[in-house]
Amino acid sequence: MSKEKVVLAYSGGLDTSVLVGWLQDKGYEVHCLYVDLGQPCEDRKAIMQKAVDIGAASAEIADVREELCSDFAFPVLQWQAKYESIYLLGTSIARPLISKACLQRAREVGAVAFVHGATGKGNDQCRFQLAAEALDPTVKIIAPWRMKEFRDAFPGRTEMLAYCEEKNIPVKATSSKPYSSDENCLHISYEAGKLEDPEVDGVSVIDFGMTVSPQDAPDKEEFVTIGFESGIPVSLNGASKSPLEMVTELNEIAGRNGVGRIDMIENRYVGMKSRGVYEAPGMTALYTAHLAMEQMTLDRDLTHLRDRMSAEVAGMVYYGM
Predict the structure, then answer these.
(1) pLDDT tens for each residue of 196-241
(2) Of 84, 278, 66, 267, which Cα lies nearest the Cα of 191?
(3) What's phi and psi for 257, nearest 5 deg?
C-alpha cells in the first residue's frame, strides 16, 4: 500500500529537519520544498542533500526571488507600508509566497497535505494558513506545533536534538542559542533568546549578515540614483535593473554604509508582544527614495489618503491577509 504524500516547507534548520523524520514516523512520504527567497547566508546544496540524507522522497528548490520582489515587495513599497510605523514587513511579505510554492509542488507530486513548522505562538502559522486556504479552500494543512502529540514529544530543543542524534539527523544547533533568525533577499530578522530581555541591547547581541554598523561604515558619502516608472524602481545609477537586481545591489550598497537596522517591540497578530531586530538595507533605501519621489508627484489629498491607508495595508500584510 502506497504512503500518503505530504509537502513540507523545508528550511534545513532544526525544526524542519526533525519534521522530516517525524512525518516519516507517522507513515507519510515526505517531499521537501526549499523556497528560495534569496536567503543570503544559506548553503542551498547542503540543505537539499541534508533532506535526502534524512529520508525525504524528494528535495526541490523553488526559485521565487524575482516574484518576491516584483509581485510582493514592490506593491507594499508603493503604499509606504510599515507595520507600526517601523517594520518593513520582510518576513510577512514572503510567507504567502511560500504557501503558494508549496501548494504548486503538492499538486505536482499528488500530496494530500501541506506541512509547515511554524510555532503555535507566532505570526507565521496564521500567514501560512490564511494564504494556503485563500489559494485552495480545500487544502489540508498539518501544523505539528499545534498538535499535542508533537509538543509532548518535543517540549524543547534538548528533546529535538536527542531525536536528531537517535535518527542520525545532522544538525549544527546547540541546546541553547542567543536568538533565532529568518532570512530572505529583503531582510534578515532576529528574535527570541537573549532578545526577549528588553534590557539587552539587541544590536550588540546580533551577528548581522547584511549590514555593517554605522560606526564601522565609511566616513565618506556614497551617492546613489534610483529611477522610477509608475512608482516602481527600474534603474540604479542609470542602469536598468530587474526588481531582484535592484534589491540585491542596493543591499550591498546600503549595507556597507550601515543603513537599515532597527530594534523594536511589536504587537503580534496572535496577541502578544515580540522583540525583533531587523536589517533591510536595500528596502530601507528604496522606501526613502520612493517617499522623496512621492513628495514631488502626489498632491496633498492623495498623500494624506495614502498616509491613512498605509497603516491598514501594513496590518493586512503583517497578519497574512
Answers:
(1) 899 999 888 899 999 999 999 999 999 999 999 999 999 999 999 9
(2) 278
(3) -105, 15
Rounded to two decimals, the pTM is 0.93
**Residues 9/98, Cβ–Cβ less than 8 Å:** yes
CATH number assigned to the domain with residue range 5-167, chosen from the 4 options 3.10.180.10, 3.40.50.300, 3.40.190.10, 3.40.50.620: 3.40.50.620
Assess contact for 5 and 29: CB atoms under 8 A: yes
| Cell numbers standing for residue 227 | 529611477
CATH code that applies to domain 180-319: 3.90.1260.10
Confidence label for 25 from pLDDT (cuts 50, 70 and 90): very high
| Residues belonging to the active site | 15, 95, 124, 180
List the domain boundaries for the chain. Answer: 5-167, 180-319
pLDDT for the residue numbered 157: 83
296 phi/psi in degrees, rounded to 5: -90, -20
| 273 CB-contact burial (10 Å; exposed 0-12 / middle 13-18 / buried 19+) | exposed
| Terminal-to-terminal C-alpha distance of the chain | 39
Q: Phi and psi dihedrals of 26, rounded to 5?
A: -80, 0
